[in-house]
């Protein structure tokens, strides 16, 4: 239930754990129109196509094939998410050309692909593995090695994009920190710890219920990765600190919305569509800072 | 047999695959004194102690313990190598204070520790696993997650060391590229592909014998990691390009020597101590550029 996922009760304020403290979000529920997932929007599809074209250049299928074929397969067969494309969209919103954010978008796609491969590795001791199970084209040791190899390659792509003529070294280093944290043990990987180990993986030490753990994991993974992606796009597009933080919040809400919609599509949630709409409103509120710009494109991430 | 490891035959030139093309190494064998491994030199021990103290600050045991205890354990229980310490030694040789190279040394230690943990993960399909088998304090999924988390943390440490006052952003980005390549599918991970998949993992497509594969894997792993480490230390210590390349070559020879000595200690090699001495001579030759400086400290990496 989406409502339960967000720990919503009528007339109670909603409080997320991961949003920038600069713009805390509290709101009271009001019924709104229902939302459904439709096909990917052409803007998202265009951004995604650009990222994949960039990656096809970066990871050609070349000799030795035993190394590069699995790498190519892993990068292009992992489930697509809106995380990398949001990075480019945020960059464009703050006035940067999307190519400025391409290395960060590519690194995010690659690291998510590596995480997906490792999540489905067949270990001797069973563990919770997310559905659907991918087709394993390669032996477990190759899947392990390929995931391990693709992560530093993502950081290499980022570091290589340094261009002294653009004086962007410090922005790239900032993005490396953002991505390291968002994908690491305090970020998306923390979601796996929470799912595996329960509330002991929480730094606040609170005993969380199963439903609360799902919510916290979503905040760390989908919320945190989208927040990071949008913030990185804004950093690389030379956005102001205010713009970066607003887009970080926007990204967080995008991620939470997508997670809710996914759970709804998978019939894990049955009600409280109204909550999704409330999160969309919170996201839209973050875009008010950009009211003099064309926010239509990035709004497609929350309007289906 | 060390001689076989290096494909040495009397009166034939020795040719390594990984050394900088700036200073190719060919030499004809001449018998020299035997070498043995003794206890770690106090200089190495001092550098290693500094790195571990730095990491104890960077990875405190804190809440949530289920996340940070395994991370701490993984970082400090993996077998010690000379790779991280060589980074500080190279930095000092070019005139930098060792703290300048500390983030790179720490990242190298962490990424090596992650590789070690993943090398010993119990997968459902058996694979060649290096001896000795470590004590598995944690379940396989936690070992997998911890290894996955520690790699981005290593890159984060590096990126965080950026200090605009020192204008070192570009050097740090260069080091991130160096380390990404040295640990990735073209570097140390390639050694695992070669060991697992045979000569198909070679980009030159040559059919290699078992012995040749061991040599090539050592060049990629021990040679490549030490070469990277020394080059990174020189970069961060503000060495010249000539100094960086000489130290890269020196590091490569250090790595190859250590691998030969390890194999000898493990009774995998029985003869050809002379070869180790020849590699030492090649390493010393690279230090000639620094003849006006005190090379005694860094020479301890090749004088046992």
TrEMBL record, chains A, B:
Domain of life: Eukaryota
UniProt entry keywords in alphabetical sequence: Magnesium, Metal-binding
UniProt keyword annotation of Metal-binding present: yes
One MF annotation (Gene Ontology) recorded for this entry: prenyltransferase activity
Cross-referenced InterPro entries: Isoprenoid_synthase_dom_sf
Cofactor(s) for this UniProt protein: Mg(2+)
UniProt cross-references to SUPFAM superfamilies, sorted A to Z: Terpenoid synthases
Protein name in the entry: Uncharacterized protein
Organism, scientific name: Clitoria ternatea
């Amino acid at each position: 239930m989406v409502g339960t996922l967000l720990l919503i009760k009528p007339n109670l304020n909603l409080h997320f754990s991961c949003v920038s403290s600069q713009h805390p979000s509290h709101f009271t529920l009001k019924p709104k129109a229902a939302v459904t997932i439709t096909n990917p929007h052409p803007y998202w599809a265009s951004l995604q196509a650009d990222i994949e074209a960039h990656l096809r250049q970066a990871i050609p299928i070349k000799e030795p094939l035993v190394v590069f074929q699995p790498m190519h397969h892993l990068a292009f067969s992992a489930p697509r998410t809106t995380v990398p494309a949001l990075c480019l969209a945020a960059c464009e919103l703050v006035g940067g050309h999307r190519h400025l954010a391409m290395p960060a978008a590519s690194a995010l796609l690659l690291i998510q692909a590596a995480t997906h491969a490792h999540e489905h590795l067949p270990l001797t001791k069973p563990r919770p593995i997310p559905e659907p199970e991918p087709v394993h084209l390669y032996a477990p040791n190759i899947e392990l090695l390929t995931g391990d190899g693709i992560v530093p390659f993502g950081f290499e792509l980022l570091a290589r994009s340094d261009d002294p003529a653009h004086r962007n070294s410090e922005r790239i280093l900032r993005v490396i920190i953002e991505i390291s944290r968002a994908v690491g043990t305090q970020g998306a990987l923390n979601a796996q710890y929470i799912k595996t180990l329960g509330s002991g993986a929480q730094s606040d030490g609170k005993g969380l219920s199963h439903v609360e753990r799902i919510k916290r994991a979503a905040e760390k993974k989908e919320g945190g990765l989208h927040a990071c992606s949008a913030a990185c796009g804004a950093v690389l597009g030379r956005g102001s600190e205010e713009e970066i933080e607003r887009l970080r919040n926007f990204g967080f809400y995008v991620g939470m919305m997508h997670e809710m919609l996914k759970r709804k599509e998978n019939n894990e949630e049955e009600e409280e569509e109204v909550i999704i709409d409330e999160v969309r409103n919170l996201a839209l509120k973050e875009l008010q800072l950009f009211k003099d710009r064309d926010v239509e494109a990035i709004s497609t991430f929350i309007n289906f």
